[in-house]
Amino acid sequence: MSVTLNLFRLQQLDTRLDQVNARLNAIQTALENNAELQAAQKAQAAAEADLLKAEKALKHAEDESARQRIKLEQADSSLYSGHIHNPKELQDLQNDVAALKRQLATLEDAQLEAMLAIEEARSRFEAACTALTSTQGRVISQNSSLQSEHDDLLREAERLASQRNAVLPIIAPASLARYTSLRQEKRGNAVTTISDNTCDTCGALLTPGHAQAVRFSTEIVTCPSCGRILFSN
Ligand SMILES: [Zn+2]
Question: How much is the pTM?
């Protein structure tokens, strides 16, 4: 019986160790790459790029308007300089001034649109910054609770490992080998308890003699149906 008691105890430790290690891995992954934070960082970078593009477009529109205004001033001053007397030349110049004014109006419209586009891009950028800041805050507090859970689990893993090391030497190598291969085969559940002469895992009913053997034999007794090592507590 003590053989199966030790194997049962070993399995409890191994099961908990597996859970602890799985959780440690999940926490490590969560700490290393937080999808929510990465998405917020990406959104902020995209909004910033849009804002810079809008600012560049406004600068371009302002330069174009300024150039156009200079051309218009030059044409205007020629027109009113009194140096041009030829009616055909004067008419041409008047036409030029009118055309330049129309073009300037179009350019100023474009400039206004560029300013509006900047306002929109700026408010989108500010919203993305606010979202990033709040995501960072959330992730930091989430991470600190994950970090403390991580530390607790590490300590538990060490404790389990030392308990495991204490159990291992009192189990015969052949029994340990049997447990190890069964545990792989049965996905972690190599040793199972019995209740009312029934295997608690597969539900197979044991003969009274078989159940007696589980209780009193010094050898390993397995379930006739699922093959697991049976343990009576
Ligand atoms: Zn069974």
Answer: 0.65
